[in-house]
Amino acid sequence: MSVRVTGKHMDIGDSFRSRITGQINDAIAKYFDGGFSSQVLVEKSGARFSADCKIHLDSGANLHAEGKANDPQVAFESAFERIEKRLRRYKRKLRDHHHGENRAAAMEIPYTVIEAGSEEEEEVAENFAPAIVAETTKKLATMTVATAVMALDMTDEPLMLFRKPGSDELNIVYRRNDGNIGWIDSANIKG
After folding, report:
1. By C-alpha distance, which of 148, 133, 138, 132 is closest to 185?
2. Spatial separation of the C-alpha atoms in residues 187 and 163, rounded to whole Å
3. How far is the C-alpha of 55 from the C-alpha of 183, rounded, in Å?
């Protein structure tokens, strides 16, 4: 059980650091017995502060939340409230699906991060090739749509790629601009 607290462009201070560590430890202990690792980054950007909280549970779940405010403590509280809400939802979902009928069997898929082009350039050169920043693999899990929505809700990722049980078809759940969650089932795509 480790909590790493860092400040970017600011000094966190022992009091604030111990408060962050205590709140995260208390929240995890309230909902889970197992171990975890956590990172909290509090960053000053101009007159605003942002807090980025990431928690990895030994069960394999990853939670992520961000908070922004004019005060670093308020920014952390905002992110912490979202993390605690996600912990509570995850605990409830585990309790409701305790029998493991939706256990995820995962396969590895290639994952590449490509550098974004500059928005300032008006024309793209004919020989332009974006730089590959990282090449790795990610797990493609088999899960129900409800479980995928829960997994998407626990992170701030824009989409979740998965397979439904009993099918090799790819499915995507994603965050829509209106705040709702969309679902694309490739089995229903005609063409």
Report:
1. 148
2. 11
3. 26
Q: Which residue's entry shows tokens 């996600």?
A: 86
List domains and CATH numbers for the chain.
2-96 (3.30.160.100), 106-188 (3.30.505.50)
Q: Which amino acid is at 62?
A: N
Q: Which of 173, 119, 109, 126 is nearest to 146 (CA)?
A: 173
71-123 pLDDT per residue, tens: 999 999 999 999 999 888 888 877 776 545 444 456 677 767 777 766 665 66
d(CA 63, CA 72): 20
- What single letter denotes the amino acid at residue 50? S
Structure tokens at 105: 């069997």
Among 75, 103, 73, 57, CA closest to 65: 75
